[in-house]
Amino acid sequence: ALFPPVARPLAGVRVLLTAGPTREPLDPVRFLGNRSSGRMGFALAEALEALGARVTLIAGPTALAAPRVTEQVEVETALEMYEAVMVRAADCHIFVATAAVADYRPETPAATKIKKDAESLTLHLVRNPDILAAVAALSQPPFTVGFAAETDHVEAYARDKLLRKGLDMIAANRVGGDQGGFERPENALTVLWRDGRREFPLMDKTRLARALAQLIAERYQGRHAA
Ligand code: CTP
Ligand code: CA
After folding, report:
1. HSE on the CB side for 216, CA within 13 Å?
2. Closest alpha carbon to 186 in 206, 171, 172
3. What ipTM goes with this model?
4. Which three-class secondary structure string do you get for 142-178?
5. Beta strand pairing status for 14-19 and 94-97?
6. What is the pLDDT along the chain (226 residues), one digit of tens a residue?
7. List of E strands, 94-153
8. How far is CA 221 from the centre of its chain?
9. Residues 140, 120: contact at Cβ < 8 Å?
10. Which of 68, 78, 84, 95 gives 20 to 30 Å between its CA and that of 134?
11. How far is the CA of 100 from the centre of ligand 2 (A)?
12. Which region, left, alpha or beta, applies to residue 124 given φ > 0 means left and ψ of -120 to 50 means alpha?
């Protein structure tokens, strides 16, 4: 049978995409983590690849099967993710940061298992580099797409991140309620750019990823228009 030609608007386009959580070690057996499943990022990576892009996925630890993308690099900590991205960022056309990167890490992980000797324990955390902001600040940055997971004032915080980090687009979602987001199969997004916005209603993450990939392709192709 003959099928109609599939639209591949991102043919020849190299995409770098972060996904999943990071783990910040406390000692050899423990880490600080977060509730990101990686599902939205993996789905978006596959959706972009399906539009013809060559996608390199930089993934924190997830329970997901390897997605159909050109290359997958597995990392654990925010610093490892930062390194893996920065050595590849100059070579990509589009960078998408879906990862839930730990904002802070224990300053010096204990070399041996921490024993419960004391009645209380204080952790000293230091800030991790902002991977998305670092890519957007390159002298010739790729088309840069961020995510913003917020519990409140979703759109205002997201627009602030778009401008402050100098992004081309940001996809904002509400987390912590029962409306989708982390640990859920469905999600709703409000996507913002400097002079526009689009709302995606609550739907399963695979469908949402396809719709978002289409929008990224459109905005990427129109990037030089004033
Ligand atoms: N991000 C990143 N590197 C970090 C922290 C965040 O690349 N060290 C990216 C995320 O992948 C996401 C975007 O920045 O695309 C926004 O993440 P978010 O946690 O919502 O914002 P932050 O800038 O970390 O600010 P805050 O957590 O205070 O809201
Ligand atoms: Ca953060």
Report:
1. 35
2. 206
3. 0.99
4. CEEEEEEEECCCHHHHHHHHHHHHCCCEEEEEECCCC
5. parallel
6. 677 777 899 999 999 999 999 999 999 999 999 999 999 999 999 999 999 999 999 999 999 999 999 999 999 999 999 999 999 999 999 999 999 999 999 999 999 999 999 999 999 999 999 999 999 999 999 999 999 988 899 999 999 999 999 999 999 988 776 666 667 788 899 999 999 999 999 999 999 999 999 999 999 999 876 5
7. 94-97, 104-106, 125-127, 143-150
8. 21
9. no
10. 68
11. 7
12. beta
- Tokens representing residue 152 in the block: 């409140």
The crossing angle, in degrees rounded to 10, of helices 39-50 and 205-221 is 50
Closest by CA to 74, choosing from 23, 12, 142, is 23
Model-level pTM? 0.95
Neighbour count for residue 186 (Cβ, 10 Å): 14
CA of 204 to the centre of ligand 2 (A): 24
What is the SS3 assignment for 86?
helix
Would you state the structure tokens that stand for residue 193, as one six-digit string? 């750019």
Question: Catalytic annotation on 187?
Answer: no
Cβ-based neighbours of 103, under 8 Å, separated by 6 or more: 127, 128
Cβ atoms < 10 Å from Cβ of 57:
28
Measured distance CA(212)–CA(204) in Å, rounded:
12
Residue whose tokens read 């940061």? 97
CA distance 180 to 174: 8
101 lines ligand 1 (CB under 6 A): yes
Q: Which ligand 1 atom is the nearest neighbour of the CA of 165?
A: 23
Q: How far apart are CA 28 and CA 149, in angstroms?
A: 30
